[in-house]
Design goal:
Blueprint: H1 15-30, E1 38-42, E2 54-59, H2 66-72, E3 82-85, H3 88-98, E4 105-107, E5 126-130, H4 138-151, E6 156-160, H5 177-184, E7 189-191, H6 197-206, E8 209-211, H7 222-229, E9 233-237, H8 242-246, E10 251-253, H9 259-278, H10 283-300, H11 303-327
Parallel strand pairs: 1-2, 2-3, 3-4, 5-6, 5-8, 6-7, 8-9, 9-10
Helix pairs in contact: 4-9, 7-10
């Protein structure tokens, strides 16, 4: 198995897991034997390094993540042939924190399967949606939504797809139970918990606004990519890799350390998005606006493009290894070319 095993993600079906399984599937379709040359660690290193293979460390977490820091500290990054990152922001954080040479790194941006275009209905309630895990901003979204509910009665609906069950960590949901119950008791909020990605993607097709007051430094954001692909007006801060992911095509605002200030700013920007979506005069330009961000997301973060980049990278690493191995074999043929020194 080219993907090294780790004990934490065996039951998980989050973004990282979807990416790594899709990568294996696509690479095997291109060349069934290509991945046999590699040992690929994904975020965690929980098995011995196989020196007979090309060893890659595909990092999805933050540079300060304890597990990653342990594997890279004091020059331990030298054990890997190449470090692969999911965004330029993340890579530069690792380089600065762990003193890693740039030539030891490469960025393979996260990617998605695009969501087919749909014609959205803007005549009824405005549908908001939140799909990240609860610790990333749900505690800001819920009270802000409740405040907007009072101002726009019977006009808003919020779908919440959020639970650590996605990673098999149900115990981490306990600290958010009060927040979940708050969602369930609100007639305009539908709490879905953790659902398969296909279910979330179908819900995105019916939604109008992706409401994400992020308080977590994303290294990349598949939720935002899918929301853009589904033609949503996306409201989020310029925190960590979100600015890079969005390409400046979203309703992006200045992040605030203070949670109350953050909530105030988010309220204002989210209300503007609600007014924009609900104004019939804007419907003529709404679809072209969101379609442009869709084209951007579907092009930049397309699996079809990324699979070619992965195949090119992996093939070049195999060729490079073969070349180096052959160069180390002592010459026995006297007719072999040699450099003259006199």
């Amino acid at each position: 198995m080219p993907l090294a095993q780790d004990q934490f993600s065996q039951k998980a079906m989050g973004g990282t897991e979807l990416l790594k399984f899709e990568l294996v599937r696509r690479m095997k379709e291109i060349d069934p034997n290509l991945l046999d040359n590699f040992q690929i660690f994904v975020s965690r290193v929980h098995e011995p390094i196989n020196k007979d293979r090309i060893v890659l460390y595909w990092l999805h977490d933050l540079a300060e993540d304890p597990a990653a820091a342990e594997e890279l500290k004091n020059g331990r990054w030298k054990r890997f042939d190449l470090l692969i990152f999911v965004s330029n922001w993340q890579m530069q954080q690792y380089i600065a924190r762990h003193n890693i040479p740039w030539n030891k790194c490469v960025v393979m941006e996260n990617c998605i399967n695009s969501i087919e275009p749909v014609v959205k209905d803007y005549t009824g309630k405005i549908n908001l949606i939140y799909t990240p895990t609860p610790h990333r901003g749900l505690e800001i979204l819920v009270p802000v939504f409740e405040a907007l509910q009072e101002k726009y009665p019977d006009k808003l609906k919020l779908d919440v797809f959020s639970s650590f069950a996605l990673y098999g960590w149900q115990e981490r949901d306990e600290m958010y139970q009060e927040l979940f119950e708050r969602c369930k008791s609100n007639p305009d909020i539908v709490y879905h918990g953790s659902q398969p990605n296909e279910t979330v993607r179908e819900a995105l097709k019916q939604a109008h606004i992706f409401a994400y007051p992020s308080i977590w430094p994303e290294t990349s954001c598949l939720c935002l990519m899918e929301a853009m692909s589904a033609q949503l007006v996306c409201v989020h801060p310029n925190y960590a890799a979100l600015s890079d992911t969005s390409g400046g095509l979203t309703s992006i605002y200045q992040w605030r350390e203070d949670r109350n200030e953050h909530a105030d700013t988010f309220y204002t920007v989210l209300e503007n998005a609600i007014r924009f979506v609900s104004d019939p005069n804007n419907l003529v330009m709404l679809n072209p606006t969101t379609m442009f961000s869709k084209i951007y997301a579907d092009t930049r973060f397309s699996w079809e493009q990324r699979e070619r980049q992965w195949a090119s990278l992996l093939t070049s690493l195999v060729i490079s290894k073969e070349f180096i191995t052959q160069a180390r074999v002592p010459a026995t043929d006297s007719s072999m070319f040699s450099i003259r020194t006199h």
